[in-house]
Design goal:
4 helices, 34% helix, GTP Cyclohydrolase I, domain 2, single chain, alpha+beta, 119 residues
């Protein structure tokens, strides 16, 4: 299956199990890989034959920035559900969500999750 990728998308949201995460918020870094049949688009050069990644970005942004979840696992699940509903040609989604500055004492680049979903 062909893939469309959105890498390093950054959004500010209020997701987390700790109270300060729900109040202060933080940056979430999201990578998406969408499994889509791109054969027609690769032959026709027609935007209607693919998934418009600008629209995907805007949909993900709306979810991250307007909703609140205790778990980033649920945030990822909500994003997958919405993308499958809104873009029927997406056959699979791999989503990575990272927090670069969660309220955890220690030294690390980020913490996060990866979900893989198929229709």
């Amino acid at each position: 299956m062909d893939k469309i990728r959105l890498n390093g998308c950054r959004f500010y949201g209020y997701h987390g199990a700790l109270a300060e995460e729900q109040v202060l918020g933080q940056v979430f870094v999201i990578d998406l890989e969408l499994a889509v049949d791109l054969v027609s688009a690769s032959k026709t050069d027609n935007l209607e034959e693919t998934v418009h990644y600008g629209h995907v970005f805007e949909r993900v942004k709306a979810i991250v920035e307007s909703q609140r979840f205790a778990l980033i696992e649920r945030l990822g699940g909500a994003i997958c559900e919405e993308l499958f509903q809104e873009f029927p040609t997406i056959e699979g989604i791999t989503i990575s969500i990272r927090k670069e500055n969660p309220p955890i004492a220690g030294h690390y680049d980020s913490v996060g999750i990866i979900l893989e979903r198929r229709r």
